[in-house]
Amino acid sequence: MAASIKQFFKDFDALFFPNICQACGGSLVQHENSFCTICLHQLPYTNYHLIPDNKLAKQFWGRIKIQSAAAFLYFNKAGKVQNIMHQLKYNNQPKVGVELGKLYGKELVKEIHYTQIDGIIPVPLHPKKFKKRGYNQSEQFANGLSETLKIPVFSDILIRDLEKESQTGKSRSLRFDNMEAVFKVQSNHPKLNNVLLVDDTITTGATLETCAAVLQNSGIENINILGLAFTE
């Protein structure tokens, strides 16, 4: 009887407060979490973790030395991935980042390269943005990766202590110098040699390039870059 009552209230909640797919907006059925089965099959996966010289990795060639670069999904405007990123960043859905991190981690753990990582470092938000949003979406993605890869997340190594100035009209070198002033590494951080630098959406890679350089200057030699979504 107790089980029947519990199921009744569960069904009642589902009727008025349905769990919806964060990609398409459809209702989820039992055992689906954040995404419906159809969307999970239809999302634009890059499979870049299987292609060392993928298009994202090539963006960093000649700019900075990294071990690898990959992203989970392709970002397309007006598509399902844009819906997902909107939910994650602007609709108070941090669990979306965690769930996608867990899903990607299940793929990465099959590759020995990703099992040799010492730690996961998310690109930080400025404190003002963190206060407004309540969480760092890149850190949520990192937490999901950590859960399946069994690699710790270090959210306090890389910090962002200034509002990024407008980059409009600046040369690439000036933009890089400006970004270097934004990111700092905490002193006395744990000794790490091989890390996964994680961001939510990668477009030009300028932010990640700067973060990687700052980390390398602090003594962390081997940087692997990972994004939730990549804009071609």
UniProtKB/TrEMBL annotation:
Show the SUPFAM superfamilies listed in the entry. PRTase-like
Identify the residues that the record assigns to the Phosphoribosyltransferase domain, covering every copy. Answer: 138-225
Q: Which residues form a coiled coil?
A: none
State a single Pfam family of this protein: Pribosyltran
Q: Which InterPro entries does the annotation name?
A: ComF/GntX_DNA_util-trans, PRTase-like, PRTase_dom
Q: Which family does it belong to?
A: Belongs to the ComF/GntX family.
Q: What is this protein called?
A: Phosphoribosyltransferase domain-containing protein
Species assigned in the record: Pedobacter psychrophilus
